[in-house]
Amino acid sequence: MEQRPPNAEAGARVLVVDDDPTVAEIVTGYLDRAGYVVDRAGDGPDALARAAAHWPDLVVLDLMLPGMDGLEVCRRMRGRGPVPVIMLTARGDEDDRILGLEVGADDYVTKPFSPRELVLRVESVLRRTRPAPAAASGLLRAAGLSLDPAARRATKDGTELALTIREFDLLAFFLRHPGRAFAREELMREVWGWDFGDLSTVTVHVRRLRGKVEDDPARPRIVQTVWGVGYRFDGEG
CA-to-CA distance for 184 and 211, rounded, in angstroms? Predict the structure, then answer.
């Protein structure tokens, strides 16, 4: 498998997976004009084969694919290595969006969508894969957790954590602001960089993060819910 370091914005390789040739062509055209190297696949097996030949920096993945759906493609791709995923959902059903986030999608866009908005989402996700600036690259430690922003590596009690890009960024933000309660709107703005969006995105990512950092996710002690407000990181947890 060809491994490529994550790039940001122009020059990054994006794999577009959609069985609708019109949608795939439009998305590919916009991404190409934005300076990305774009591969296309029309189904799950083709997507996995193309990813194995040229590992992408990001995948734009349709949920409703024939045969092997986007959720399974995401699972298998993540089994081979870390890669950011933006899921395309044909319906506005919350269950579809939640499923995509639960399997580790970093973002989702509901069809019909603005191609320009999708390009902005791609830029936003890829920007998060950049190495941390020197001023922000110091090790962060609390509650048995250690996080290295420059290496994008996190451990709990010495064991490495398998975090998605957004989970890593969320944990880094919490570690930098222990003891302070944040509303979901604030977390979306500070971690995702959006002033709008579905707040269930934050809820799902907090739940996934708890599953990886808490001893008992059902009774969280590190990432606590502040009723009526949002969430607070307890550095003593």
Answer: 18
Radius of gyration of the chain (CA): 18
d(CA 115, CA 104): 22
Q: Rounded to an integer, what distance in angstroms lies between the CA atom of residue 233 and that of residue 237?
A: 8
For residue 144, how many C-alpha atoms fall within 13 Å in the half-sphere facing its CB? 14
Count of residues for the chain?
A: 237
Q: Which of 121, 127, 166 is nearest to 27 (CA)?
A: 121
Q: What is the model's pTM?
A: 0.70
Say how many CA atoms lie within 13 Å of 175 toward its Cβ: 25
Q: At what angle do helices 70-80 and 44-53 cross, to 10 degrees?
A: 20
Q: How do strand 140-142 and strand 230-233 relate by DSSP bridges? A: unpaired
Per DSSP, the three-state class of 126 is helix
135-152: average pLDDT: 82
Give pLDDT tens digits for 48-63.
999 999 999 999 999 8
Dihedral sign for Cα atoms in the order 154, 132, 175, 218: negative
Q: Are 86 and 56 in contact, with CB atoms under 8 Å apart?
A: no
Give the per-residue pLDDT at 43: 94
- Long-range contacts of residues 70-79, Cβ cutoff 8 Å, at least 24 apart: 70/17, 70/44, 70/100, 71/99, 71/100, 71/103, 72/44, 73/17, 73/44, 73/47, 73/48, 74/100, 74/103, 74/104, 74/105, 75/103, 75/104, 76/44, 76/48, 77/47, 77/48, 77/51, 78/103, 78/104
